[in-house]
Design brief:
The chain is mostly helical. It contains 6 helices and no strands. Helix content is about 90%, strand content about 0%.
Length: about 170
C-alpha cells in the first residue's frame, strides 16, 4: 500500500508541476492578461490551499481519508478542465480556488493514509521518501510539460494533469 501511495503521489505531483508553469502562458495567451493579473490567478490557488488546510484535515477526520482521497483528486481535475474551457477570468478564479482546495485535501488525505499504513519504526523513512518524490516531481514535471506542450498547445499539460487526476481517483 505504501509503494502504491508513493507512486500515486509521484504521478500527482509530476502532473501538477507539469501543468503549473504552462498556466501562466495559457492565461496570458488565452485571456490577454497582464503579468500581475496572471500572478493573482496563479496565487489564489495556493492561498485557498493554505486557507483550507486545517478545515480540510478536519473534513478528512470526519468523512474518512479513504473517502476523501478520490474526492481530493477529482476536485482539481474538474477544476482544471473548467479553467481550460472557460474564457471568463472570474470563473477561472473560482476554478483555481476549487483546485487549491482539492490539492490541500489530497495532501492531507495522502499523508494520513501514509501514516496509517506505515509501521512506526519506518515513519521517518517513508515520509522522507514521500518528500523526495515531491522534489523529484518538481524536476521532472516541467521537463515533461515542456515536451507535451511542444507537441500541442500550452493548455495540453493542464488537460493531461486533469486526465491523470481523474483516472487516479478511481484507484484504490
Amino acid at each position: 500500500m505504501i509503494l502504491i501511495l508513493l507512486i500515486s503521489n509521484l504521478a500527482f505531483h509530476i502532473s501538477r508541476f507539469m501543468a503549473m508553469p504552462f498556466m501562466a502562458i495559457y492565461f496570458s495567451q488565452k485571456l490577454d492578461l497582464t503579468p500581475a493579473e496572471v500572478g493573482v490567478l496563479l496565487g489564489i490557488s495556493p492561498l485557498s490551499s493554505l486557507k483550507f488546510s486545517v478545515p480540510g484535515g478536519r473534513l478528512g477526520d470526519k468523512i474518512g481519508v479513504y473517502k476523501m482521497y478520490p474526492l481530493a483528486m477529482i476536485t482539481p481535475a474538474i477544476s482544471l478542465i473548467g479553467v481550460v474551457l472557460s474564457g471568463n477570468v472570474w470563473v477561472i478564479g473560482f476554478f483555481e480556488i476549487t483546485a487549491g482546495v482539492g490539492w490541500t485535501l489530497f495532501n492531507s488525505s495522502s499523508n494520513a493514509i501514509l501514516s496509517l499504513h506505515t509501521p512506526e519504526h519506518q515513519t521517518e523513512k517513508v515520509f522522507s521518501y514521500n518528500y523526495w518524490v515531491v522534489n523529484l516531481s518538481g524536476v521532472l514535471g516541467p521537463l515533461i510539460g515542456a515536451t507535451v506542450a511542444s507537441a500541442g498547445s500550452s493548455g495540453l499539460p493542464i488537460i493531461l494533469f486533469a486526465a491523470i487526476l481523474h483516472n487516479a481517483s478511481y484507484m484504490e
